[in-house]
Amino acid sequence: MALHISDDKLSEIRNAADIVDMVSARVFLKKAGKDFVGLCPFHAEKTPSFTVSAGKQIFHCFGCGAGGDIFNFLMKYDGISFPEAVQAVARQYGIAMPEKDMSPQQKKQVSEREHLLALNRRVMAFYRDMLLKDPKGAAARQYLKQRKMNREMIEQFSLGFAPPGWDNLIRFLRKYRVPLEMAEKAGLIVPKKQRGYYDRFRNRIIFPIVDVTGQVVAFGGRVMDDAKPKYLNSPETPVYHKGRTLYGIHAAREKCRSQGCVFIVEGYFDLLAMHQHGLKNSVATLGTALTRDHIRRLSRAVGSGDKKAYLVFDSDEAGINAAKRTIGAFLEESMEAAVVLLPKGYDPDSYLFEQGPGAFDKLAQSAPSLFAFLIDSAIAAHGLTVEGKVRIIGEIAPVLAEIADSVARSLYVRHLAESIGVDEAAVLEKVRENRMKASARSERAPKTSGSGGDAPQRADAQKIPEDRLEKQVVAMMIQNPEVLPEIRERGILAYFEDAQLRELAEWICRVMDREAGTASDLFNSVEDEKHRQLLASLMMEDVCWAQDSCSLLLSQFIQCRQRKQTDLLQQIRAAEKSNDQELLIKLLSKKQKQAVERG
Q1: Quick one: fold of 7-102?
Q2: C-alpha dihedral over 58, 238, 210, 167, to 10 degrees?
Q3: What span, in angstroms and rounded, lies between the C-alpha atoms of 291 and 242?
Q4: If you average pLDDT over residues 575-593, what whole number do you get?
Q5: What CATH number does the domain located at 249-358 have?
Q6: Quick one: pLDDT at residue 55?
Q7: Fold annotation for 105-230
Q8: Element (H, E) at 231
Q9: pTM for the whole thing?
Q10: Which label site among 266, 334, 404, 568 has the fewest CB atoms less than 10 Å from its CB?
Q11: 204-210 and 216-222 as β-strands: parallel, antiparallel, unpaired?
Q12: Where are the beta strands (DSSP E) in 441-522?
């Protein structure tokens, strides 16, 4: 669905924006000639194939085929609609959006997201004022002082306080005439069983959850006593997805890149303690296990080259089970993972305030790899008796079976076998059994269309036409529209054999006839995903299309096609001479099809 905004307004937004700035806020990019390259955020890869062109204001991944302009990138990365992407870019660069140019449905799409984010900002200010200025926040201020949180951390992370009572926030919202239905959708208030609402957060320290772009997307709350639950988080909303969001990522991104590593903790206060003690390349999960999406985003935040993640969490059964599920994801991202083992009874918060960052750094320096930690934990749990070894293999073999890289899997098998003193072949056989079971489950599972979750988009998912000359002609049409009159005059498109390329070329002619814009303007009128990806691929070609070069290419193209037609006529005569009726029918059918296509 196209956004009904004037071409002038779209051009204003596009000209003001810089795709490199917007993408680099989410993906680590390095300069490569005139372009920027990085690891694709849309599929797992070890060698950068994701390219962003500052001059053309487009991106393209030569691995999975994803491509487009700044709006397409935000739609795909942030999972938002086109109207929301346009609004996000406009907001980033301070450009007012005229709502009168939108349809009612588009207004609703843009309005909901924007209103939720604006509401979260207003509520964050309410909670912050309650903490810092209101007498009701005295106990909370004292609590933070006891937790040794300094003023800098409180202000940097905009900590707040939700006072006791069932309707403090509701009364605040009513004062500013905020619809309570919108507050419910934001997860700020909860409907009662009969009528009305009550505040979700009450008598809690409030931690605003900010995404990588600096938008307040949700909140977390912690009690100041032994009440349950100790922590309470916002539910998932249209702007908040806990499986993709990490607390503190907005404050950690630059340090992650410069240090080449990231610390991952579990709690809000753990994260604040890390930052307060100078470990600013730290993030925290939000009441959920570390997901593949988390790891992929962290990998991009840390950047390319040697990169490492330090898991700093409780060594309990839940933590160990969560760690097992991440080995494959870390390997896919070419990211080394280690586990910082704190002394019993400590968490990062208490350890840093008691022992200091120097002691923590020593623990990190000696941190075992994630796999070594899992083996040690299994040995501690089961022992090295015969029965214990059987349990250890049974516990770790499914983990090894999920590792896609066969070389890495083989090395881990050997490591496990040597660590517990069993024959490597026995471990390998158990791993094979688990892989076969997983494969059988996958075959039985219902097949779904479309891409979702963490499934990588393969390069063959969108097959790009292979005709080199036809691709060159279309690339020339995109990058040098002055050649279009000659294209029409010489009837070039009638010679095209690839249907997708011909359709794209015809569409380019139609668009260029209606409006004279830049190459990136084409993306606003293309709706077909295959055309969009092919368009990005062709636009990335860096060729100087002088007029003489264009005419020469078109002449070569026509000569090549005419030779093919001559060859076809010779094949028809040969089939007639040999009386091969089956071949003759095929060749005549092919000749008729070409005649129809040529009009």
Answers
A1: DNA Primase; Chain A (3.90.580)
A2: 160
A3: 10
A4: 72
A5: 3.40.1360.10
A6: 82
A7: DNA primase DNAg catalytic core, N-terminal domain (3.90.980)
A8: strand 231-233
A9: 0.69
A10: 404
A11: antiparallel
A12: none
